[in-house]
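Quick one, T. Sequence first:
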Amino acid sequence: MRRNNGKQRKKSLQTLIACSATAVAVISLTARLPALLQGSDDLFPTLAAGTVLPEGVKAAWEENSAAVSSVSAAPAESAPEASHAPEPSEPASEASSSQAEETSTPSSQTELSDSGYAVHERQIGGSGTQYENFYVKNTTGVDISIAEELAKRPDITIKKDGTPQVLLMHTHTSETYLPSDLGYYPEDFNPRSTDNNNNVARVGEEVKKKLEAAGIGVIHDTTQHDVPSYNGSYDRSEVTVKNILAENPSIQVVLDLHRDAIGNAESGKTKPTFVADGKKAAQIMIISGCGASGNVNFPDWEYNLRFALRLQQAAETRYPGMTRPLKFCNSQYNLNLTHGSLLIEIGSDSNSMEEAVYTGQLLGDALVDVLNTLTE
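Structure tokens:
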């Protein structure tokens, strides 16, 4: 009898210890639940196993704690510099700089493959205010008459006398494109390159060639303002532009050429394209700033907008589908340095280099069309 009582007490003690261990594990796991939700896509199956066996709880705890530790160890993203909020093109690893909010015409969609992320190829357009054959997306709170602004001459006078009239530059020079039209976005692709033959500076060269062929003097500055640090890029490019303008007071137009980034790994990457003369090209988005909110120093923004509207109209007239809606926003982006300064996004990080280079040629054509109407 004593032996049976001893066995019973031992069994009860083991049961108590097992229950206590399970309770402690569950309580601890519950306390870490918010973090675990971010750390593993397989949390709930492992939790289900854990509620059946104490060892399952232990396994879930160890596996997901390791995942959370890995996430917590990742460096925090740096915030954009305070003097320019936010920057229009962000690293592809961050949230996309431009959401494809516009009405879009899908041309193809590639599902997620073992090699990378899904790519959604489409022609973006049809959002904002329509005027004739193009659109303007006005987020400034300022009412504008597109017709009236188009009728006013921009504060630009082009002289074909051999002096520099146009400055092409890049605040984010290292922004690059996919090496080819892969149909997917490689998981290990680095969307930045310090090789100016393999980034947005290569596209700028195509614009330069078109201007030179039309007899318009041009300087193409390829200083890498986003290397080694992305933050502070606009502060550095401001210094570059001011120095070039001081040395070349004949410059009338400053174009900051970028490459956009749209989408992410979860939703897929958006690739904005259109077809010109039977060949696929990357769409562009023209950005014109405004100081109406009082948050930025941008006097005389109306002059820049007039130039932007003319370029938008010329591009869409010559190559229908080339432009996404013109973005008119309460931002500066150094566009206040001249009356002819614009920021232009050429494609996205899921466009191919070939598509972007072709667009550089088309943009050069449209730019020549506009500047030839503003000659002395």
